[in-house]
Amino acid sequence: MAPRLISDADFNRKLNAPDRNREHTQAFLAKGVEPFSLPGYVPPAGYRLVMSLDGKQCRLLKDDITAYAVKIVTGKCVVPGKQHCTQVMVWRTFMPEHQEALNGLAKLIFAWLLETYEIVVSDSEQTGDGRRFWEYRISEAIADPRFEVMIWDGTKDNDELTPIQSTEEFVNKWSPYAWGTDPEIHQHRLLVISKIKSAIPPE
Predict the structure, then answer these.
(1) I need a labelling partner for 84 at 20 to 30 A (CA). Which of 66, 148, 149, 153 fits?
(2) In a domain, 12, yes or no
(3) Residues 48, 63: contact at Cβ < 8 Å?
């Protein structure tokens, strides 16, 4: 349940190949979608942003091709009594013709998740790209007084939540602590960004 570093994920391989992307996209659409309006983002001509009917998967599509995809899962294990969300299966195409449409999209979706769920938690396995994305978001949140940034350590008996006070502290101490390749350790260390101040429960 934390940022264990992994190699390129299976969904990357599926969506990177155009034929498999089209097949994967058609299967997603067949389950039902609705238009999704993301604050601050206007899809360019020919693109549409959609959300699955269960609200758990968002995609940017052009025709029957996926250009960006993110799954959303929710839970309550990190901050007692508070629901949080986690982005999983975050993927974007490397095809150059889609890059302008993707500009800023991931950051805006992350901001929407934080606004909607108030607590966003890192996923249990990440590629190197996923780690870099989270490092940017952590640094931004530390600099923003509206947010509280923490690390949750499920390897401790009491599932400790520890505040991260500065970017320097995060880079020097918590980033190497959170990310690694040991499944017994790094799947149980999560980074937390909370819009709810003092999300750390009292002793």
Answers:
(1) 66
(2) yes
(3) no
